[in-house]
Design goal:
- The chain has helices spanning 3-8, 34-43, 140-143, 168-172, 175-181, 201-206, 214-217, 228-235, 251-268, 275-283, 295-314, 321-326, 396-412, 428-442, 446-456; strands at 25-27, 50-54, 63-69, 72-78, 84-88, 102-104, 109-110, 117-118, 124-126, 149-153, 156-160, 187-197, 334-336, 340-342, 349-358, 361-371, 419-421, 458-459.
- It is of the alpha+beta class and 474 residues long.
- It has three domains: 3-47 and 173-208 and 333-471, Naphthalene 1,2-dioxygenase Alpha Subunit, Chain A, domain 1, CATH 3.90.380; 50-156, Rieske Iron-sulfur Protein; 214-326, no CATH class.
- The two termini are 17 Å apart.
- The structure holds FE2/S2 (inorganic) cluster (FES) and fe (ii) ion.
- Residues 207, 213, 217-218, 401 line the site of fe (ii) ion.
- Fe (ii) ion binds at residues 207, 213, 217-218, 401.
């Protein structure tokens, strides 16, 4: 049955193996079954927006980045008009890739096999000895590189293999609006590494889709002196506001706890709090504060003011914190389906991208992004060589997450382990993402999928898996 047929006719839905039936139980086989993986390659990845590169990697005419995922290579290039184009990476003669990794082809692409040439718009400009070919094989339109859909948001180029998929911006909401408020487009790469994880890509995602693990996996992020339920509240992900610590202690301890938290995020989670932001927060330690539980919030607002002043003095862009407060946009970990994360606290953010290399192998890219004054951004680091999850160069927080994942993948294979049992609120996002994947595999209606994408795209936190029946698309 064709794709269109499956989508027009609900009766023609595809069977999804091991699909989510009870929303809080996820079949372990979804994370290692080759058939399930093959269905994702065929029915999920070709229809979703994928973050292909940062725009600072391609500032000049002819700069390109090769983006590969599930066996498909796409070249993203700064074209002659200063815009961004993307092409499927295959010479129209005999299919050799016209470019690899990253570089500059100011004068266009030259195929290394027989020398066919293409300009920055993908137009074929040279065929060596065309009289050797039959006319039918030299149809000019057919000789141009095949374009791939591309669009930009937040300092990144995203590609989509599906010309009928909803627009990028729509697919990124409400993530995009929130991350615009944190100035995602002003951030630049400070540091980039990637991790080769012996796990399924959705297992890797799942380690960042909930805050329930913070208590045990990242004890450094829990303020000293918190107990019981308070301790759990404090472990909720991404709440940078010192008000989190209200009630735990006097004003001075609230501030000290908050500063310790920022320090742990700076050292332990590269990019989440930049060292310049941390220094500004620490310089305010002794400011006068109210003596009640509002001290923490008051201190956060003083940090915002100091960052705003620093921004005006140095030209380093900072978000409009008043806008963030007025619109109640939470800092912390934000997720865009299927495989992209940003984690802003002030004006910087770690950026994650998760790509499968097989049912039980994943490439997990990690960037530290931060804003710079005009012209001050450092050179873009080279494409990283993937490191092992236990490489000592990983900062503390990701190393703690990476340490659990291979053990989890192995545990899923244990005899008698049939399904993960999810907590209804705090692990709701794991269920929602899995069910949305089922929708793609089943060939659900496009409008339903588009709505579901916006529902799972957002901030990590308590997410109800029971009030969104429309996500049961498998
Ligand atoms: S394959 Fe590219 S010129 Fe022959
Ligand atoms: Fe974590």
């Amino acid at each position: 049955m064709t794709e269109a047929h499956a989508q027009d006719n609900p009766e023609a839905r595809r069977e999804v193996p091991f699909k989510v039936v009870e929303r809080d139980r996820i079949d372990a086989r979804r994370y290692y079954d080759q058939g399930f993986y093959d269905r994702e390659v065929e029915h999920l990845w070709p229809h979703v927006w994928q973050m292909a590169c940062r725009l600072e990697e391609i500032p000049e005419r002819g700069d390109f980045v090769e983006y590969t995922n599930v066996g498909k290579s796409v070249i993203v290039v700064r074209n002659g008009d200063g815009g961004v184009s993307a092409f499927h990476n295959a010479c129209r003669h005999r299919g050799v890739q016209v470019a690899q990794d990253r570089g500059n082809v100011r004068n266009g692409f030259v195929c290394p096999f027989h020398g066919w040439c293409y300009d920055l718009d993908g137009v074929n400009t040279f065929v060596y000895s065309p009289d050797h070919f039959r006319d039918a094989n030299l149809d000019p339109v057919e000789l141009n590189l095949k374009p791939c859909r591309v669009d930009t948001w937040g300092g990144c180029a995203f590609i989509n293999h599906d010309d009928d998929a909803p627009p990028l911006r729509e697919s990124l909401e409400p993530f995009a609006t929130a991350m615009d408020a944190f100035n995602a487009h002003e951030m630049r790469i400070e540091w980039a590494e990637s991790c080769l994880l012996p796990v399924n890509w959705r297992l890797a995602l799942g380690a960042f889709l909930e805050g329930y693990h913070v208590l045990t996996t990242h004890p450094e992020l829990i303020p000293a002196g918190t107990r019981g339920k308070e301790k759990y509240e404090a472990s909720r992900p991404g709440v940078a506001h010192a008000s989190r610590y209200s009630g735990t202690a006097d004003a001075r301890s609230q501030v000290d706890n908050y500063l310790l938290y920022l320090r742990n995020l700076n050292e332990g989670n590269k990019g989440m709090v930049d060292r310049r932001e941390l220094a500004i927060a620490e310089s305010l330690r002794d400011v006068e504060l109210p003596s009640d539980e509002t001290a923490g919030r008051d201190f956060t607002h003083k940090v915002y003011e100091a960052l705003t002043e620093w921004s005006a003095e140095t030209g380093v862009p900072m978000p409009d914190f008043n806008h963030i407060i007025e619109n109640n946009i939470p800092a912390g970990t934000w997720y865009a389906f299927p495989n992209y994360f940003l984690q802003p606290i002030f004006g910087s953010a770690p950026q994650y991208r998760v790509r499968p290399l097989g049912p039980e192998l994943t490439l997990f890219d990690v960037w530290a992004l931060t804003p710079y004054a005009p012209g001050e951004a450092p050179p873009v680091p080279p494409t990283p060589t993937p490191m092992a999850p236990d490489d000592e160069r990983w900062p503390l927080i990701p190393s703690q997450d990476f340490a659990n994942l291979p053990k989890q993948q192995l545990g899923l294979h244990a005899a008698g382990f049939e399904y993960m049992r999810l907590a209804e609120g705090v692990e709701g996002m794991v269920s929602n993402v899995e069910r949305l994947v089922d929708g793609y595999l089943a060939g659900a209606d496009k409008e339903q999928l588009a709505r579901a994408v916006q529902h799972v795209t957002g901030r990590i936190g308590h997410v109800d898996m029971h009030t969104n029946e429309f996500l049961d698309l498998g």
